[in-house]
Amino acid sequence: MEFDVVVVGAGPAGSVAAWAAAEAGCDVLVLERKAEVGVPKQCAEGISARALEEVGIEPQDEWVSAEIERGILSLPGGFKFEVEVEGCMLERRVFDKWLVVRAVEAGAEVELLARARRALVDDGRVVGVEYEGVDGVHEVRARVTIAADGIESRIGRTAGLVPPLKPTEMCTCAQYEIVGDRHDPKAFVIHFDPERIPGGYAWVFPKGENRANVGVGIRGSESHPGLALRTLDELVKGSLSELVAGTPVEVNVGGVPVCGPVGRTYGDGILVVGDAARQVNPVTGGGLHTSLVCGRIAGEVAAEAIEEDDTSATFLKQYQDQWKEEFGDTFECAREVAEILPELNLEEVVEFLSSVENLEELLRTSGILEDIWWG
């Protein structure tokens, strides 16, 4: 098989990349390892209005579960800092499938149960993908390969662009969807507790009047198997009990990269995007906003490369130039904040936040108000 563009992974980054490339007239194939796009969810499901606008997406009733107007930073002892935000809560199962449907409607093909094995490399150039489908192992050739295959990214790794993750570069996360929420349905809460949640935080994101996503993320260097879920259980029964009470109807666990983007997200014949490129906020672990925007940029640049008949690293570098122009300051600010916070005790955190003249502006600059949700 031969295509202009092959996209590995039908998450938000991959689907938007496929959509953008197909709309520009490219022959596009999307390979997705799962049987159903968007399942299970690996996200707190919140997104800013700005993120949707930047990708040209109008909110749809079918995948918006609640409107968000306020964000609250909470610390033990009753300290709270509140800022205004504009965003919504998604139903990721519906949203992710809606994105891939848009790609198909634009002309992309999709193959499910297709597990990527490695990048096909010819004399240093990526020329496609080897994958395992329901009927055996296949090769697909493409002029541009877009690796959107998640945190472990076999394609990015075998192409020589994505190094293995270290425990210090990850957060381990656990989340419940709870029915019976008592929390303000228009506000999300981020709860910092350095003693109980080392190197991380807990969150409550409302999904309407009686549902909420409640989760916790712990820095990998401070965690061990099962700790995130045990900590979440303790918080739901303890310090978060005034915010949420009810019955869990879903549990999700997973890892999130918090090291910042890989050094190079392009090569001859390849672009790397989303969690595969570790385009995730180092402070918050949020990556949905960046995945959508970087996916759009990747699809557009891939289409330009096909049109110009130039899929060299020199041409494809403009993808990295563009996403860095969009998010470079955010990642740099977030890295600085991420380095400071673990060294502070609770009193110093309160003093630091209280001393900021324009807290909302700091949060926006660091990307916290755009990407604070686990994506």
Q: Strand-residue fraction?
A: 25-35%
Spell out the CATH superfamily of the largest domain: FAD/NAD(P)-binding domain
- Number of discrete domains: 2
The CATH class name of the largest domain reads: Alpha Beta
Question: Average pLDDT value?
Answer: 89
Give me the CATH fold name of the largest domain: FAD/NAD(P)-binding domain
Write up this protein.
The chain is an alpha/beta fold. It folds into 2 domains: 2-42 and 94-165 and 259-335, FAD/NAD(P)-binding domain; 46-53 and 61-89 and 167-256 and 344-371, D-Amino Acid Oxidase, Chain A, domain 2 (2-Layer Sandwich), CATH 3.30.9.10. Helices cover 31% and strands 32% of the residues. It has 10 helices and 16 strands. The protein has helices at residues 12-23, 49-54, 92-105, 154-158, 227-237, 288-308, 313-340, 346-355, 359-365, 368-371, and strands at residues 2-8, 28-31, 46-48, 64-75, 79-90, 109-111, 115-122, 125-133, 136-147, 170-181, 187-191, 201-206, 211-219, 244-257, 266-267, 270-272. The strands form 2 sheets. Strands 1, 2, 6, 7, 8, 9, 15 and 16 form an 8-stranded mixed beta sheet that branches. The protein is globular, with a radius of gyration of 20 Å. The protein starts with a strand and ends with a helix. Residues 371-375 have low confidence and may be disordered.
